Amino acid sequence: MSILAAIAVLGILIFVHELGHFAAARLQKIHVNGFSIGFGPALLKYQGPETLYAFRVIPLGGFVSFPDDDPESEIPPEDPNLLSNRPILDRAIVISAGVIANLVFAYLLLVGQVATVGMQEVNYLPGVLVPQVLSEKESVAARAGIQAGDTIVAVNNRELEASKDGIEYLMSTIQDSANKSIDLTVKRDAEIKTISLEPSVGNDGKGKIGVMLQPNNEIIRRRPDSLGEIFAVGAKEFDRITMLTFGGFWQLVTNFQETAQQVAGPVAIVAVGAELAQNDLANLFQFAALISINLAIINILPLPALDGGQLAFLAIEGLRGKPLPSRIQENIMQTGIVLLLGLGVLIIIRDTTRLDFFQQLFQ
């Protein structure tokens, strides 16, 4: 059930994104001849007065299509309600509406979480958690005996206090100690022991030990006191998640080699969502908001086949006073689609091979 819930979340977010494009077009009386969730052959379809609505075989996205690109369309090419015949601003609204829809939906999800489940307040505990350790080949910590689930309670005999500063101090100590021995006091169940290790040097010249770290805290939920507080807390959480997402993309750009392995595809996203839903169904609110914001930011990037790429074409058209030749646009779009699909397939294969059940098949 938790896997189905995570898949449903992704489906809803795709639907919201495409609905944004569709609604922006129809509200401007622009012709739309297709609204699809998924790609490939249609599993379910309904032909409306003008638009074909369909659920398709490959549930990894969706699209809204326009008769401008349909050579069999009976609508005259000079029809003012064709998307290509509209002013740049009208087209920009349609193209960007999917991104706007995802951002608005993320905010509403967070408001809904605050209103129904309550506000999340963090109660910090001493130490820093180790949720994941890389393989021994990649991890100094694994070779030293640190395991997932451990709590690092002190570094070089300095206790890590019960606050968000604890993880920052530990990370800075590790990064500043490349090829220098440090002592980590580790708590595992009721046992406490000291482990000495030397952080290796990363590509950025900073020390690393091959673990993921997270604050040691527990989440306490509190009901808001007023309607105004519900919207204010929702906005604050929306701003926090958005800034963290932008920070993650910036790290990907500035430190690609170290960060690329953390990029997740649909398989990994569903796996994470299923785990969150299994622990607490209310976590799906925040999970959905996070993915919705990521979907918005990814789509606004100026890359071919994404909404940002289409907006880039419009910007060039505005500067030139005329659009780029259709052949050039088509070649760029086709190249972008092939590259994105290829990258998507590689990420799906990688994430699938990392799943526990897959690895058990080969043990």
Secondary structure: elements and pairs:
Blueprint: H1 2-27, E1 34-47, E2 52-65, H2 88-116, E3 119-133, H3 140-144, E4 151-155, E5 158-159, H4 165-175, E6 182-188, E7 191-197, E8 200-201, E9 207-208, E10 211-222, H5 227-254, H6 256-259, H7 266-279, H8 283-300, H9 307-320, H10 326-354, H11 356-361
Helix pairs in contact: 1-2, 1-7, 1-8, 2-5, 2-8, 2-9, 5-8, 7-8
Order of helices and strands: HEEHEHEEHEEEEEHHHHHHH
- Report the span from N to C terminus: 27 Å
Estimated radius of gyration: 24 Å
Structural class: alpha+beta
Q: Specify the helix fraction band.
A: 40-55%
Strand elements, count: 10
What is the tally of helical segments?
11
The percent range for strand residues is 15-25%
Can you tell me the overall shape? elongated
Task: Give the overall pLDDT as a whole number.
Answer: 81
In total, how many domains does the architecture comprise? 2
Q: Which blocks of ≥5 consecutive residues have pLDDT under 50? A: 263-268, 347-363
Let me know the largest β-sheet.
Answer: 6 strands, antiparallel
What does this structure look like?
- With 363 residues, the protein is of the alpha+beta class.
- It has 2 domains: 86-118 and 226-363, no CATH class; 121-222, PDZ domain (Pdz3 Domain, Roll), CATH 2.30.42.
- It contains 11 helices and 10 strands.
- The strands form 3 sheets. Strands 3, 4, 5, 6, 7 and 10 form a 6-stranded antiparallel sheet that branches. A two-stranded antiparallel sheet has the order 1-2.
- A hairpin with a 4-residue loop joins β1 and β2 (52-65).
- It is elongated.
